[in-house]
Batch of 2 targets.
Target 1
Amino acid sequence: MASAHPLNCAMHCTDLQYAKVSALGTRLVNGLYVNTTLFTAPPIPLGTTTTGFLGALTKLNSLIASAKGNSNNTGLRDTQSELVHGMIEQLIAYANPICNHILANITLSGFDSSNVPQPTSKPLAPIIKKISEDKQEAGYYKATLAKPKTGGGPLTAKVAALNQKGTRWSVKSSTVATGPFNILLQDVASTKIVFTGLTVGVKNYIIIYGTNTKGKGPDSKPYPFTPQIP
């Protein structure tokens, strides 16, 4: 009997599990970026040891090595791990439709496979807790979504919707609160969302929304944010 929950690409690591992020990134370099007949146009170029995905991964590996016995570099290592993790989230959103629940394709990509339960409803509007730039690469910003609180009781419908594992988040922005809005990032699974595309010194209104197999959920409230670091 076929599983009720089809196979999907999966990441079995958080953004701060830097060793696991590094190992998965290496598998993607030797998988997704090598099997170009199947994966023809990854959203992040492979690049070189100083650019693109390979450059970000190379920097992470260097910081992992330099952080051993040097507490001054642990913060830089963790920030780089978050950045690479965010890139991998974009790659997983790209790879999943191509792999089409086929284990052989998932294996070729370099991702892990997992049976992900299907959601029961569309995501509700997320709440943007904060947007920060001080610990990111120049020109990158991290949006953190508020975590739903249960109060120790049973999950409410709202909490259940926000906790659905199949939800992927997209980011859009405008210099006017009422829009029109431009898409900056699409379909990442982490609630710590790293994106780029803003101009320093310009006030932007950031909106985030979730999508799952049931469809697109409503937008968050516009979050005002003005980048300061050139």
Note: Helices lie at 18-29, 52-67, 74-99, 103-109, 157-162.
Target 2
Amino acid sequence: MNDLPVSASAATPRVAFLGLGAMGQRMAARLLDAGFALTVWNRSPGPAEALAERGATVAATPADAARGATVVLSMLTDDEASGAVWIDGPDAALVGINPGAVLIESGTVSPAWVRRLAAAAVTRGASLIDAPVAGSRPQAEAGQLVFFVGGDEWAIEAARPVLAAMGPTLHSLGAIGRGAETKLLVNGLFAAQLAAMAEALAIAEAAGIDPTALSALLATLPTTSPALANAARMMAAGDARPLFTIDLVAKDLGYLGAFAVEVARGGTTFATARAAFAAAQSRGDGTRNVTGLFRASR
């Protein structure tokens, strides 16, 4: 693993950004703040119009957005959404890309899909890197995302100034797909901790222990990471405003399960976590924040 500090480049790439959801619109705003010439595309017009007011060009299709861009970046929900934007139909991004362009998939998608998309990019004379992120909306807004990157080193270096505008740290992990694999493992580890914390607080509550007091105590211990401590506090407070939703984590755990099978590992603990998230979905809590697991555990 080669952990490289992100630094700016003298060159200023022309950037296209595809997918302006909660994360994407904040990431795109950081690119505008950094002075990049930015073209954006989104299925619904609202987020694109807000960025247009700040100087972005709005494209009618992904293909139009990609034309003339030296770096094309997407932040999309899953394999299906990524496929629809990058390769499906005459308006897909790959139709419009220039030979030599560097493509970046920053959504949390499956390693298998990343490798398929990379192969499709090669047929168009482009190179793909997978660069999913650690961090949620606050980190995206502050430009403090962490990137897990797989792909050719030259392509990573070409993308470095763009990624630098959105986060200070880039972990270069090797071949294409390594970023996606690492991101799924990171999310799986956090998901397992969230499921355990929700269950611990539910057991405490049933025993007459105040979940708020317990979450405060746990936050002082070295066994509780800052992210988990914050999640426990939100669970105890009943705060499930959507930052990182149960539906998204369940999707990630599904991809992680497939990855574990691919490398002939069972992933038993992750499967248990996936069951906890599926139970929350079955209660209708899929659009709630991951902290909504506490409600499903009660």
Note: Residues 178-206 form the longest helix (29 residues).
